[in-house]
Design brief:
By secondary structure, the chain is of the alpha+beta class. The protein contains 7 helices and 4 strands, in the order H-H-H-H-H-E-E-E-H-E-H.
């Protein structure tokens, strides 16, 4: 409706301009007639909207009356559904122990604090390479000529007997004791390879 009114107003404006340009009164009367028609259409649209307003207000009241006329069973159903979460919540609350039922803190074993430093010291002692064996001059003369097999660990300066306790869990490389001496390796103070090998070949 508003589009039609807009078109009529624009047409009336165009005819008014034409009447002014040409000086013909006919176009002016037609422009006035279109303007009156547009006004009548606006009045009709306003009356129609005014009638619809009371009808729309009556519809919510009818809906409210229908809700009041519903049977009491529906209200009972609502109460039942509202009670179900309350029961579930009560069950969940019952599963949570009350204060003091979690057990006595004295019954919980405390971690052994003394074991941690001891383990750290053992690890440090294992990672620290052993010192160098002080080989006697007569033992050194014997060892230099031997081809008996000892073992070395990569990136460590000592050579060891195969059963040396410091080698536990390490990758070893077998090598002759004389060759190990030539390559710059020194005997392990823990297993004493020079003294053991020299005593075995005397």
């Amino acid at each position: 409706m508003l589009y039609i009114v807009l078109l009529l107003v624009l047409a009336a404006l165009g005819l008014l301009v034409t009447a002014l340009v040409t000086g013909t009164s006919l176009w002016a009367w037609v422009s006035i007639g279109l303007s009156v028609l547009a006004g009548l259409l606006l009045l009709v649209d306003w009356l129609r909207r005014r009638r619809r307003a009371p009808e729309s207000d009556a519809e919510p009241e009818a809906a409210a009356d229908e809700d009041e006329d519903k049977p009491a069973d529906s209200a009972a159903d609502t109460d039942v559904t509202a009670d179900v979460p309350a029961e579930e919540e009560a069950e969940q609350t019952a599963l949570i122990p009350k204060t003091g039922e979690l057990g006595d803190p004295a019954d919980v074993p405390h971690p052994d604090v003394t074991a941690e430093p001891a383990a750290a010291e053992a690890k440090a002692a294992r990672d620290t390479p052993p010192g160098e064996e002080e080989t006697a001059a007569e033992d050194l003369a014997v060892v230099k000529e031997l081809e008996d097999e000892v073992v070395v660990v990569d990136e460590y300066p000592r050579y060891h007997l195969v059963d040396c306790g410091w080698l536990s869990g390490r990758d070893t490389i077998p090598i002759g004791v004389g060759e190990a001496r030539q390559l710059g390796f020194t005997p392990c103070a823990r297993c004493g390879p020079d003294g053991v090998l020299a005593a075995a070949h005397r």
